[in-house]
């Protein structure tokens, strides 16, 4: 049975009223959300570790006439989320929602290590590991810690790296080291946190390279 003209008009009017109510409700919810954010849309901020290349060694010949490939550093799973990490208790990890890494921390640390090794002049040639070529040695490493630490005493950052050197000709591990640095953050903002993280990572890299240098100096004849 087809509806009469009056029924059709009522249905049309009801449909229009429902649409108006939905639109009004949606606009009201949007207003509330905007008001909750102070009327400002938040966009992510992106950061990079600043790891300047160390001064070049004055040595004319490499300490070890051998080639080295550096494999990308590994990281714990929580450092692969893309967001900067903070810790308020030893057991709980937090992530900044709007403060993120512009590149993977592992990639930045790997690049920093390669530059430091090139500047040290310990090897005749240093390159990123790509699975090609015949390198004499392979370095593997890992970021053990890279985070902001909040406490009642203030804000600190902690960085800790580990690395190993493998002789590809014999399969033997000829060196292993671990280094870390903790530093205070004077100005309490994320940019200052990243600046101190950069310093802590760079110091950790320099200590690892120094440890490797000592190892090569003592065993240079064996490692040739």
Question: Can you walk me through this structure?
Answer:
With about 220 residues, this protein is an alpha/beta fold. It folds into two domains: about 1-40; about 45-224, 3-Layer(aba) Sandwich (Rossmann fold). The protein has helices at about 5-35, 105-120, 190-224; strands at about 45, 65-70, 85-90, 90-100, 125-130, 135-150, 155-165, 175-185. Strand 7 (about 155-165) and strand 8 form a beta hairpin. Helix 2 packs across helix 3 (about 190-224). The longest helix is centred in the C-terminal third of the chain and has 34 residues, at about 190-224. The radius of gyration is 28 Å and the shape is elongated.
% residues in beta strands: 25-35%
Largest sheet: 8 strands, mixed
CATH class of the largest domain, named Alpha Beta
Summed up, the domain count is 2
Features:
224 residues, alpha/beta, 2 domains, 3 helices, 8-stranded mixed β-sheet
Describe the secondary-structure layout.
Blueprint: H1 5-36, E1 45-47, E2 64-70, E3 83-89, E4 92-101, H2 105-120, E5 123-128, E6 137-151, E7 154-167, E8 173-184, H3 190-223
Parallel strand pairs: 1-4, 2-5, 2-6, 3-6
Antiparallel strand pairs: 3-4, 6-7, 7-8
Helix pairs in contact: 2-3
Q: In brief, what are we looking at here?
A:
With 224 residues, this protein is α/β, with parallel strands linked by helices.
């Amino acid at each position: 049975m087809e509806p009469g003209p009056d029924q059709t008009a009522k249905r049309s009017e009801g449909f229009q009223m429902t649409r108006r109510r939905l639109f009004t409700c949606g606009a009201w919810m949007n207003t509330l959300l905007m008001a909750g954010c102070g009327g400002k849309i938040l966009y992510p901020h992106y950061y990079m570790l600043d790891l300047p290349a160390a001064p070049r060694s004055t040595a004319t010949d490499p300490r070890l006439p051998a080639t080295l490939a550096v494999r990308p550093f590994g990281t714990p799973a929580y450092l692969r989320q893309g967001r900067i990490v903070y810790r308020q208790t030893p057991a709980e990890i937090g992530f900044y929602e709007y403060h993120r890494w512009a590149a993977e921390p592992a990639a930045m640390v790997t690049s920093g290590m390669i530059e430091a090794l090139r500047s040290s002049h310990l090897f005749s040639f240093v390159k990123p590991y790509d699975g090609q070529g015949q390198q004499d040695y392979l370095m593997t490493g890992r970021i053990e810690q890279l985070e902001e630490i909040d406490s009642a005493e203030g804000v600190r950052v902690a960085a800790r790296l580990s690395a190993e050197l493998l002789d590809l000709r014999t399969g033997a591990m000829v060196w292993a080291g671990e280094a870390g640095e903790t530093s205070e953050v004077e100005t309490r903002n994320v940019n200052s946190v990243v600046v101190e993280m950069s310093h802590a990572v760079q110091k950790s890299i320099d200590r690892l390279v120094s440890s490797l240098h000592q190892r090569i100096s003592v065993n240079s004849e064996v490692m040739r």
